Amino acid sequence: MSKILVSDPIANEGVELLQSRPEVQVDVMTGMKPPELLAVVGGYEGLVVRSETKVTSEVIKQGSKLRVIARAGIGVDNIDLDAATGAGIAVVNAPTGNTVAAAEHTVALMLALSRNIPDANQSMKEGQWKRSAFMGIEVRNKTLGIAGLGRVGTEVARRAQSFGMRLVGFDPFVAPEYARRLGVELLTLEEMLAQADFVTLHTPLTDGTREMIGAPQLAIIKEGARLINVARGELINEAALLEALDAGRLGGVALDVFAQEPPVDSPLPKHPKVLVTPHLGASTEEAQREVAIEAAEQVLAVLSGQPARNTVNAPFLPPEIHEVVAPYIQVGTVLGKLLTFMAGGQPVALTIRHEGEISQHESPILKAAVLAGLLSPVSSQHVNLINAPLLAQQRGLNVTEQRNDVAQEYASILTATLETTEGSITLSGTSMRDEPHIVKVNDYWLDITPTTPYMLFVDNQDQPGSIGAVGTIAGKHNINISFMEVGRLNMRGRAMMVLGLDDPVPPAVMEEIIALPHIFTARMVTL
């Protein structure tokens, strides 16, 4: 009999589903302190938590029988994923159960903003009757800008269509055809902000999206626009938002999330143009029931030896292909991540070519590795080798695989070509001494070991002073260069310069590099 511990409150339906299996014993013990959890976790094969329980490396070490840890919700930041993976424990979550709840809350806030419902309600409770003071606007024929067309953004788009709204969107990693099917016109972030009457945020929180709405964006947003955030508070620079509100640029703001929660020191909740709710996006009876059931289903699947839909850590690699294929998993992940940062435009198709010895194995794991690297910088979910193909399919990305028994130059080469609306880019990699090596960028042969936190790819004219000019700018701004590699097609022709950096290149410095007369393009990659 398998024993499952439910250490945080979840909906009864989830507990009942677990209890419905005769081969399972379920113990519900909520509110335990860390020492209490450590004292009992060793007796369980499954652990179900929400956000209250902190599943630390110490808990995982004590849970010597654990086979699965389930989070009844989407975020798993309270679980030590590295420790769980190292211990062979599957970590699963429930990312779909609260999608509709978050989308409906977004729409509710949009309607409340447009008709001044909170202020009118408060006025009535105070015994007033001020009809003219609360003149609203219709959402019909207005433009809704949706930043992020993932699960929640997609559901918001579907609901907004019924209101007769024009839909525009910004998502750097959604295929144009997918957006067209939703009735959304894809734009740049700046174009979307300039056109939208309502702007709603549904992007994941990454280094690239943190404070994606700041002073520059609020300076170009359509005057009188209304801004809604039911995603993550850190997507907005709250100080800049307050300045824009005081300057009268915005018609209203609705916030369900904040950079610090609760926002005890923030003036935003008390601002007259701000409508606030205390992180209620997923707070519906239905959503809590769905995430509990979703988590329970996956726990039961893992304990019965079946694959779970939403495993957020690495899967097992069969021994028979491990020796040949395993080193190329990291190669594929690096290739995918580099493509994400280096490609411009909206992705359309991905071609993965296996050459040499690795082409003889039909395991889909290398395809998943490239997709995981490609999607992880732009996805709100924990992308891994199991869910990456499904996420790519949901985003409308066409993926093709090719195989060739013969590889150029190396025993095995993995090549990935990403086609976008602005062109294509091809990267090839191999594994040597158990390290990934990037050996080709488009037509340029080189050899790069991505060991630095940042890399700068510079397409330039091969001429005296090219390398020195870039190095001089880096040195002037205290940017340390770890290594430099150059690939070229012919003498004094076009070349690719790759610099390994210990420090990021700020936008102003990047503009300085691109302004050099012999530089065609330059892109920085964060590894």
Task: Outline the structure in words.
The protein has about 525 residues and is of the alpha/beta class. It has four domains: about 1-95 and about 285-305, Rossmann fold, CATH 3.40.50.720; about 100-275, NAD(P)-binding Rossmann-like Domain (Rossmann fold, 3-Layer(aba) Sandwich); about 315-440, 60s Ribosomal Protein L30, Chain: A (2-Layer Sandwich), CATH 3.30.1330; about 450-525, ACT domain (Alpha-Beta Plaits, 2-Layer Sandwich). It has 17 helices and 22 strands. The strands form four sheets. It has a seven-stranded parallel beta sheet with strand order 8-7-6-9-10-11-12, sandwiched between helices. A six-stranded mixed beta sheet has the order 14-13-15-16-17-18, with helices on one face. A five-stranded parallel beta sheet has the order 2-1-3-4-5. A hairpin with a 2-residue loop joins strand 16 and strand 17. Helix 1 packs parallel to helix 12 (about 285-305). It is globular, with a radius of gyration of 26 Å. It starts with a strand and ends with a strand. The mean pLDDT is about 90.
Layout of SSEs?
Blueprint: E1 2-6, H1 12-19, E2 24-28, H2 34-40, E3 46-49, H3 57-62, E4 68-71, H4 81-86, E5 90-93, H5 99-115, H6 117-125, E6 143-147, H7 151-161, E7 166-170, H8 176-182, E8 184-186, H9 189-195, E9 198-201, H10 215-220, E10 225-229, H11 238-246, E11 250-255, E12 274-276, H12 285-303, H13 319-342, E13 347-356, H14 365-375, H15 388-394, E14 398-404, E15 412-420, E16 423-432, E17 435-441, E18 444-448, E19 454-461, H16 466-476, E20 481-488, E21 494-501, H17 507-514, E22 519-526
Parallel strand pairs: 1-2, 1-3, 3-4, 4-5, 6-7, 6-9, 7-8, 9-10, 10-11, 11-12, 13-14
Antiparallel strand pairs: 13-15, 15-16, 16-17, 17-18, 19-21, 19-22, 20-21
Helix pairs in contact: 1-12, 5-7, 13-14, 14-15
